[in-house]
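@here heads up, posting the sequence + SMILES for the ribulose-5-phosphate run so it's all in one place. Ping me if the SMILES looks off, I pulled it from an old spreadsheet.
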Amino acid sequence: MAVAWSEKASSMKVLSLSPSLSPMSPPVILTQDELKKVAAFKAVEFVESGMVLGLGTGSTAKHAVDRIGELLRQGKLNNIIGIPTSKKTQEQAISLGIPLSDLDSHPTIDLAIDGADEVDPYLNLVKGRGGSLLREKMVEGACKKFVCIVDESKLVKYLGGSGLALPIEVVPFCWKFTASKLENLLRDSGCVAKLRNDGKGEPFVTDNGNYIVDLYLKKEIGDLQVAGDAILRIAGVVEHGMFLDMATTVIVAGDLGITINNKH
Ligand SMILES: O=C(CO)[C@H](O)[C@H](O)COP(=O)(O)O
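bot reply: prediction finished. Complex structure tokens:
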């Protein structure tokens, strides 16, 4: 259901950005990475012993996974089982001693914590600029609660509104054909499709052996659900990076503090 930032979404405000600051401390300007950490630490407050946890991917989620590992080490959390959303997060969790499992063994997840590339006023997300959108969507789709953590630079008026990529995971076979189908489908939004590269001149390959086609939009997509369903009907598309109506909470860290936005 729809919520708007300024009206219904903000259900709670935390005035201090850093747990170590007293309310009388002078304002502190935090870096983007510090804001990500603040959002991540706040999300980990929702974690309880005995939970099965979806562990997200990216620089924001990394802080949450680090914090979970720290609390386990300190004995403040027990009996956690993590379900990682990427090989990278799996490696991080193993290095922290977080017990891991998968969706086959744990098809229901109590809580997932993950970042996002864009958040719209209705708490819809773009994810996958880190390349892990398929596993993220599988894990976060199996959650009772999905807490998304972002710094305020991720807030957009509409999905695609940052001018950055809307990622689509595609099979490598004839990816140009799939990319042109995507451009054609979203031509009213001025869509340009580009194959993501790995920075060394080769295609970026996901954990699932697929490619990513990044869509750049000049205009807003009309009905996101309709567009998402149409994207999935293109043979060759594996999954798209729009996470519609999936986040139950979005925690935003910004210069003025943390806002916790709950879906109503
Ligand atoms: O979807 C993702 C990875 O596939 C990430 O959550 C998203 O890219 C945000 O990353 P970061 O926290 O590094 O800004």
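MO: The chain has two domains: 5-156+244-262, 166-240.
MO: One more: The first helix runs from residue 5 to 9.
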